[in-house]
Write a structure and sequence with these properties.
The chain is mostly helical and 245 residues long. It has one domain. Helix content is 66%, strand content 3%. It contains eleven helices and two strands; from the N terminus they run ααααααββααααα. It has a two-stranded antiparallel sheet. β1 and β2 form a beta hairpin. α2 packs across α9, α3 packs antiparallel against α4 and α6 packs across α7.
Amino acid sequence: MNVKTLQKSAWRGWRGSLALAAAVLLAGCAGTTRAPSPQDPYEGFNRTMFEVHEGLDKVALRPLAKGYDAAVPLPAKMSVHNFYENLWDVSRGGNAFLQGKPREGFTGLGRLLINSTVGIFGLFDVASEMGLDQGDEDFGQTFAVWGVPDGPYVFLPVIGPNTSRDLVGWGVDQYFYPLWWHVDNVALRNSAVALRAVEVRAGLLPGDKVIEEAALDKYAYIRSGYLQRRASQVHDGNPPRRDDN
């Protein structure tokens, strides 16, 4: 199997994983509509923000993502994705230590070291080939481990679904992301942020059709799936049962 074939297989696997993650993220109450949720006391506001987000996605994010997906060669798309993900290992490793998971913490830092050097500034995910799996720890999960409750569900345009706890955690993660706070050139930093947003949206394109066809109430569908997924992440795949519909 040549390098090009390997690249295609890896890219398809990554996109397939994102599509599956989107389906899981948006899984839940497809057969119900407007079901009341005790975790969503600001549902009216959140639904308005959701409609704003949908409008922005329709006129800007999705077209840009489709253009990026069609125009950028596969190896370049993989390298862009790997570059951004490599820098997130700073946050993943640090949060693992803060959560009392030293093994995952050292794995994250090891991935960062290997991919930043052997992987040429993170353009190639050499660490995964060496068996160092990528974690998914973030500051929202760290807050949860420290005993901070979820708080109310919040949906914001572009940022997407969150709880109040996870929204604060997201802000902390963004603050410590190396590419944002190490780049003094505002135009370059803004371009990097925009490229990341388009790159992430492009990875979610395969899940769009599934989501549209499955959800009678897309807002409730996303809310339910997000809360389920976050509970699974916080509890390392073994969340307690709860009614989050």
